[in-house]
Specification:
Largest sheet: 7 strands, mixed
Order of helices and strands: HHHEHEHEEHEHHEEEEEHEE
Shape: globular
Strand order of the largest sheet: 3-2-1-4-5-12-11
CATH superfamily of the domain at 70-210 and 299-331: Vaccinia Virus protein VP39
Distance between the termini: 33 Å
Strand content: 15-25%
CATH class of the domain at 70-210 and 299-331: Alpha Beta
Length: 332
């Protein structure tokens, strides 16, 4: 089965090892550019896509198991409850395209329910995460062609030949669409429509609006795992970009912005201090914040309106009994 797993690499004459090295160098340059430009802004920020190095990915897996963090449990339960209905509505013979490497367990639930999946193509910039997910899923679903694609899933323009002229099902789980601004989410959905093509379907997990008493603990747990996850972003800068952040002088914070309908995560400077990254100095005042993540929440109607504006037709939405989370099936 291992022979069915391959990484889709850029066109050209580079050998696989050289191409992967080039990918890693490009990723490091992207990280450096985002950090340096983000710290230089008046309102400092670092994109949340950089949370997920090896340490960050392990910490996030721990977050998904926390009592306070409901999204993973709620979405998994929805898939378990409604997967047969989803499979009937989607139909047989689809190529499954996953945006982001996602949770292998949730993906496996979906693959197991669908009839005659032609191929599985996960898209992510993290090559190692793709390899690990593909390896695990190949053991669970023997004979399924798995073709990981190293790319930014928000901007991917082309799919492997195995997906051409076949009906496709997109899958975007974990409420990751909430990390995008409304404009970014609209652009992502429009690009996904172009990528998947006419006749495709799209299954997305979307977090619902709910009381702050539930939201805040989900992003600021009692054990401090989310705080460690957020602070690891600074540790990663130290490891990879020759930074000298003192993690004891920054604190994790999460607030709900009612007007924007989103959780905002930040790192707060606990004192006046100067930090260096790749030789550049950045001065922080006590209380100054580095914005690291938004997590937008939607009502069912709000998300369906966003989907329609991006060219999709909402077909069905499922919610759990406590109305914590939703699954949406869209069509073109």
């Amino acid at each position: 089965m291992e022979g069915d797993i391959s990484l889709q690499l850029p066109a050209g004459q580079l050998a696989p090892s050289e191409a992967l090295r080039a990918k890693h160098e490009a990723a490091r340059d992207d990280f450096a550019e985002a950090v340096l430009s983000g710290l230089a802004r008046e309102r400092r920020s670092i994109p949340c896509r950089f949370f997920y190095d090896a340490v960050g990915s392990e910490l996030f897996e721990e977050i998904t198991k926390l009592e306070e963090y409901y999204p993973t449990r709620a979405e998994t339960a929805l898939l378990e409850t409604h997967r047969a209905e989803i499979a009937r509505m989607v139909g047989a013979g689809r190529v499954l395209i996953e945006f982001g490497s996602g949770s292998s367990r949730k993906t496996s639930l979906l693959i197991g329910a669908l009839a005659k999946v032609s191929a599985y193509i996960p898209i992510d910039i993290a090559a190692e995460s793709l390899r690990e997910a593909a390896g695990w899923l190949s053991e669970q679903h023997e004979g399924l062609p798995i073709l990981p694609l190293i790319a930014d899933f928000t901007k991917t323009r082309d799919l492997p030949k195995a997906a051409q002229r076949r009906r496709k099902l997109g899958f975007f789980s974990g409420s990751t669409i909430g990390n995008l601004s409304h404009a970014e989410a609209d652009a992502f959905l429009a690009n996904a429509a172009r990528l998947l093509g006419k006749g495709s379907a799209f299954l997305l997990g979307v977090d619902l609006k709910k009381p702050v008493s539930i939201l805040i603990p989900a992003y600021n747990d009692r054990r401090g795992v989310t705080a460690a996850f957020n602070l690891n972003l600074l540790a990663r800068i130290n490891r990879e970009l020759d930074g000298d952040f003192d993690l004891t002088r920054f604190a994790h914070d999460a607030v709900y912005n009612e007007a924007e309908g989103r959780i905002e995560m930040c790192l707060v400077s606990l004192s006046d201090q100067t930090v260096r990254v790749q030789g550049r100095a950045f001065t922080f005042a006590e209380g100054e914040r580095i914005h690291t993540e938004n997590s937008h929440k939607y009502t069912v109607a709000e998300f369906q309106a966003l989907a329609r504006a991006s060219g999709w037709r909402p077909v069905r939405a499922w919610t759990d009994p406590d109305r914590l989370f939703s699954l949406h099936l869209l069509r073109l």
